């Protein structure tokens, strides 16, 4: 990883950080120790510190050195109040405090220290493969009430996903994505098998082959199995390492971010990293499938109007070569479905329609089971990983049924693009007890606390925290 999340050594010296709410007559300041208390209150007042959310005030000691800091967290939330505008408020402090170890010494009622500490870890991320930047400076001593190793495991999965997405296709083609998967398998004792090139035809993965055969690197299907017993969880991630749009070529403005089109693969690998670090894979049968391809242009590229026969036997009319993600996912889902997993999840940067509907920060998910959907949405809400349910709207099934084949990969008209894509994928996942599809963006378009501009994990923590309830 470009950087690795970690907390400060709890035995090391650390400066105090007070979390402060605004009060009716000014900030609700704590009693400060003597080394900063002699001037701390007056200094805070002189700096105009009120305790509003995100406000930081460094406090000098009597010797003139930094003696601590006040950080405003805003008023206590009212019951049922809408989510805060910023998910990881304390990450602002992590990004602004001077280099030192810091220890939170107050715990205001209604403030989630677990999410605050996780946001601090997220703020440590740096992608420095090509350009060295400043290392994260402020380190947090994990609060005693917080499960530090669990947060580090979640942050490690997030960092892995960010690294994979941020790496350009020149260094993250199908072979490089395979190498990253092999590295993860080696670290956690998983088995990995790979089917590549023309072997995909021989072993009946025709749509993965068709989409990827024009690429500079051969297409492949990555299949990871983690040691464990229990319910079957299979994760399928779209691994389109670069998407030109194929012969239906994208305009330059739409192609600029297409290194992130393997964001689904990055997210399932990041989730697997977290599950393995937490030791949860021993209590389930975890499988990860990634069709890794480039959607490129050459004499061998698949064409608009082609009819492909999928692994499942369903025929698919290609009405847009830029709707390739659902094609490669379909073959991988059909393989996963052979084992009738208890929970089958696909994650993909699949449709622009999802972004038009919900924007870049709120990925939709699709699920037929109300209980599973509620578990996921509640887990996302409670763990600062927002997701939103959209329907498998069955009246739209006719939109994906063309005249000359079983399925259409790109219905005309442009209506309900995220839903029709999800309906298409559901046709290949009929034996799983529960099927959930996430249409993620995988990218942070502008920097926010704990979330630098660039590759982003979406839905991983929602899934992680919902699994005990879903799998029992």
Automatic annotation (TrEMBL):
Stretches assigned to coiled coil: none
Keyword match Hydrolase: yes
InterPro entries referenced in this protein's UniProt entry, alphabetically: Leucine_aapep/pepB (IPR011356), Macro_dom-like (IPR043472), Peptidase_M17_C (IPR000819), Peptidase_M17_N_1 (IPR048816)
Domain Cytosol aminopeptidase: start-end pairs: 320-327
MF terms in GO: manganese ion binding; metalloaminopeptidase activity
Residues of the signal peptide: none
Swiss-Prot/TrEMBL GO biological process terms: proteolysis
Source species, domain of life: Bacteria
Alphabetically ordered keywords of this record: Aminopeptidase, Hydrolase, Manganese, Protease
Pfam families, alphabetized: Peptidase_M17 (PF00883), Peptidase_M17_N_1 (PF21337)
A GO cellular-component term linked to this record: cytoplasm
Family note: Belongs to the peptidase M17 family.
Stated name of the protein: Leucyl aminopeptidase
């Amino acid at each position: 990883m470009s950087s690795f999340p970690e907390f400060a050594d709890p035995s090391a010296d650390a400066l105090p950080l007070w979390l402060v709410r605004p009060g009716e007559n000014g900030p609700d300041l704590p009693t400060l120790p003597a080394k900063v208390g002699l001037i701390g209150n007056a200094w805070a007042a002189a700096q105009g510190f009120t305790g509003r959310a995100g406000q930081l005030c460094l406090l000098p000691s009597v010797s003139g050195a930094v003696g601590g800091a006040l950080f405003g967290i805003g008023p206590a939330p009212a019951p049922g109040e809408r989510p805060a505008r910023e998910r990881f408020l304390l990450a602002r402090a992590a990004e602004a405090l001077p280099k030192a170890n810091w220890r939170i010494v107050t715990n205001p009622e209604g403030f989630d220290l677990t999410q605050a500490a996780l946001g601090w870890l997220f703020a440590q991320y740096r992608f420095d493969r090509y350009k060295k930047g400043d290392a994260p400076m402020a380190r947090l001593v994990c609060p005693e009430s917080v499960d530090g190793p669990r947060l580090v495991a979640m942050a490690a999965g997030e960092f892995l996903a960010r690294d994979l997405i941020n790496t350009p296709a020149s260094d993250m083609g199908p072979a490089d994505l395979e190498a990253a998967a092999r590295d993860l398998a080696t670290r956690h004792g998983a088995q990995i098998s790979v089917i590549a090139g023309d072997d995909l035809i021989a072993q009946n993965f025709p749509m993965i082959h068709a989409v990827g055969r024009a690429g500079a690197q051969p297409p492949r299907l990555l299949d990871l199995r983690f040691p464990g017993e229990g319910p079957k969880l299979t994760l399928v991630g779209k691994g389109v390492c670069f998407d030109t749009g194929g012969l239906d070529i994208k305009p330059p403005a739409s192609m600029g971010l297409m290194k992130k089109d393997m964001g689904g693969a990055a997210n399932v690998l990041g989730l697997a990293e977290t599950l393995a670090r937490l030791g949860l894979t021993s209590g389930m049968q975890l499988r990860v499938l990634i069709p890794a391809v480039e959607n490129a242009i050459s004499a061998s590229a698949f064409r608009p109007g082609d009819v492909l026969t999928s692994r499942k036997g369903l025929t698919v009319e290609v009405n847009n070569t830029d709707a390739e993600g659902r094609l490669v996912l379909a073959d991988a889902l059909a393989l996963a479905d052979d084992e009738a997993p208890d929970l089958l999840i696909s994650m993909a940067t699949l449709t622009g329609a999802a972004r038009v509907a919900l924007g870049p920060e709120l990925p939709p998910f699709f699920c037929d089971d109300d209980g599973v959907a509620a578990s996921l949405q509640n887990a996302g809400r409670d763990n600062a990983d927002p997701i939103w349910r959209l329907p498998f709207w069955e009246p739209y099934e006719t939109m994906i049924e063309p005249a000359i084949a079983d399925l259409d990969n790109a219905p005309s008209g442009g209506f309900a693009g995220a839903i029709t894509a999800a309906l298409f994928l559901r046709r290949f996942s009929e034996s799983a007890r529960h099927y959930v599809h996430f249409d993620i963006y995988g990218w942070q378009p502008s920097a926010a606390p704990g979330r630098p501009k660039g590759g982003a994990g979406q839905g991983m923590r929602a899934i992680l925290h919902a699994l005990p309830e879903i799998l029992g």
